[in-house]
Structure formats: C-alpha cells, structure tokens
Write a structure and sequence with these properties.
With 433 residues, the protein is an alpha/beta fold. It is built from 19 helices and 14 strands. The structure holds nicotinamide-adenine-dinucleotide.
Length: 433
Amino acid sequence: MQLTMIGTGYVGLVSGVCFSDFGHDVICVDKLPEKIDALQRGAVPIYEPGLDDMMAKNIANGRLQFTLDLNDGVGSADAVFIAVGTPTRRGDGHADLTYVYDAARDIARALKGYTVVVTKSTVPVGTNREVARVIRAENPDADFDVCSNPEFLREGAAIEDFMRPDRVVVGIENDRAKDVIARIYRPLALREAPIVYTDLESAEMIKYAANAFLATKITFINEIANLCEKVGANIQSVAKGMGMDNRIGGKFLHAGPGYGGSCFPKDTKALARIGQEHASPVKIVEQVININDDRKRQMTDKIMYLCGDKVKGKKIAVLGVTFKPNTDDMRDSPSLTIVPALVGAGADVHVVDPQGRKEGEELLPAVTWVEDVYEAVKDAEAVVVLTEWNEFRAVDLKRLAKMMKDPKMADLRNIYDPVEAEEAGLQYISIGR
Ligand code: NAD
C-alpha cells in the first residue's frame, strides 16, 4: 500500500515508521523544515526507544521518505493519515482543530483517484464528518472516504504498542474504505490483534472515553493515597490488593504527583467540554481535572513542608522533569508547575533528567541543568523525585545522603523503599506510605 502521514510528531512518525516496517511505502509530511531536514538526514527528532533503528532500516529499504511537500505523497496514496496536533484551544478547553482542518484542505487539493482520508489525531465527535465536508467543499470532484482511526500508543513504549496493540479502532462507513484499512492493518490482523470496526462517532468517542477513564483511575488512586497517609495504610499494598481483582486491573494504579503529558490533560478537558456543549456534563471527568490541578499544588506544599516551609536560598535537586520515563516529552508535565513554584519561593533548583534537557531548558529557564544525579545532590538541602527513570532507581542512597548538606528526600514516585532511605540517613517522605 502507498501511505502518506500528515504530521510527523510522536504519533505520525511512529505510525509511519511502523507502517513502513509492515512493508507499505510511506511518505511522511511535516510543515516544519527543521524536522524534515533532520529526518531526511536520518536523525530522529524525538526520543523514543527503538525508533532510530527501525527508521534507519526502512529508509535503507526505500520504503520510508520524508518531505515538506504534501503533493509528493497524497496524489498516489491509497490512504492519507492526519496525525497533526489537537492541543487545548486557548480560553475554552476545547480541542483546537485548526491543524486538522488545515491539513484536510491541503489534502483535498492534492487528491487524485480514490483515497481514504484517515484521522489518527484525537478529535471530538463530529470531526470526521466535518473533515469530509471540508474536503468536499475544497475539491467537489474528489473520490474519497473518511475513516476515524484513533491511536492508543504510549510514548516510551510506542513501537511495542503499535506493533502489538490491545486493539485497533476503526470508524468507517462503507466496505470500499474498510477493504483499504483492512489491507493496511493486515500484518496486525495476522498476529490476531483485535480490530474493532464501528461508526465514526463511536470511534471518536472511544478514544476520549478511554483516556478519561485512565486519568480517572490515576486520580482515584492519588486520592486514596492521600487517605492512606492519614490512616496509616500503605498505598502500594492497597493498589496491589485492588489491582489483583481482574475487574480492576493493576495498571494505572500508581500514586504520584498527578497525571501530565501530551494527552490526558487536553483530552479530559476536551471531553468535559463536549459534555457541556451537549448538555450532558461528564461530571466525574470535570472533578478529575480539578483534583489533578490541585494535586500539583499539594505536591509543592509537601516539598515545602519537608523543607520546614523555607526554601529561599536552599539548593534543591530535582530528579526527572519529563511527564514520565523513556520520553523527552515535557507537555503538561507536573514538573512545569512544581519546579517554577520552588524557584518562585527562592530555591536554587538543580535538575537532572536523562532526556528532558533539550525541551526543558526553554520551559524551565531559571534552573541549573546537570548531567549526573550526584552532581545535582551535592550540598543540596533536599532532593525531589519527579520522574521514575530507571537510572534513578539504581542510585546509591547512602552516597547520595552523604553528599547532601541536609539529607531530605521527597520521593513523589515511590521509587525507593522507605526503610532503606531512612537507613541511608535520609529524612524521607513519599506518596501514600
Ligand atoms: P506532535 O505535536 O508531536 O506532532 C504534530 C506534528 O504535526 C508536528 O510536527 C507539526 O509540525 C505537524 N503538523 C501540523 N500541521 C501540519 C500540516 N498541516 N501539515 C503537515 N504537518 C503538520 O503531536 P503528537 O503527540 O504526535 O499527537 C498527534 C495527535 O495524536 C494528537 O491529536 C494527539 O492527541 C494524538 N495522540 C498522541 C499520542 C502521544 O502519545 N503523543 C498518543 C495517542 C494519540
């Protein structure tokens, strides 16, 4: 199959590379010259484990190309995937669909022959029908169908998720388009990945409902963690005991500093907005959004409390700023609330993150960036764990405590054992234990 990806970010690039690995011919388009320039040189502009090798292999096979010019790929494509960003629109919490409709107009002008236009971006219910309307208005003669194919990959495990998905969701309206999509996903179907065919509206809703549910699960366990601290229970035992119930499941039951990232914050807001617009508010999700916002402030209070409510002039080491490990993505990371609050209170913050520096330098300008945990903690009066990178789990706590001026630790990801931390000489607090 000949495929074109519009948008070469986390989703567009990973999907494009994986489709080329299936054996399809893929052209990836982006409007950012520096991104396409890097990709044409074989450089991967994001950090995603395994992506560089798979990309290099498929470029070498001649199945994967990158271009700034959408006309290079759309005319000859069996399917064109829209994988552009759908960030929160300023002011009202709705998904900003400008990039999606701009892409639809560009695609419309370049269409030749029958093509399936597939929306991979996360979009509110009704968007795919509007994409069809936009294309028809721009090019009344175009021979096309639209398809909703939301993506569920997780940054940090994106290739594995794309290659071995729990399911592929396809919203589609006729057999001609279904046949094209079935051929594209045939390699996954052969591996028995379930493919859920449904209507456009349901496919669009599945993505928002799934993300809002996961955000709710995280928020629920965070609230239970707060209560555990008051009653003397241990959130890790509680989560383990709960998660063993198959109806609940153990995933997304890790208490922490609140969810962040490129999807949950914006998708929960968009779903709440969709509910309000249809006079059917999703009150549980509205609550989740508020609780998660408060949580980041609570985490700052926790760190301040550990420091005797005074951080002015104190060196504080922060381990990790990306919203989760194995990514360089900083979008809506809890660190973007917590670190500026500490800086604002006068702390001298030193940050170490295996991949976050490139993005983080601009977003967290008033901090000192270092490359090594021990350098970060030297003479510090507190250390705060914000992201559970594996590199941090292996730290020698005794050595760390000895290097600090005042050995205090706020472990907001529960990566250390409280007994070991205290034995190492740290005054240690964590979440829900
Ligand atoms: P991103 O911001 O990393 O990438 C979007 C890319 O699209 C950018 O490189 C941008 O330059 C490009 N672009 C925008 N308009 C364009 C146009 N008209 N022509 C060509 N290129 C254009 O975004 P992302 O994280 O990959 O997310 C894309 C979509 O997928 C979003 O709707 C998101 O909600 C959804 N999604 C993301 C993830 C994730 O983990 N990042 C997971 C599942 C779904």
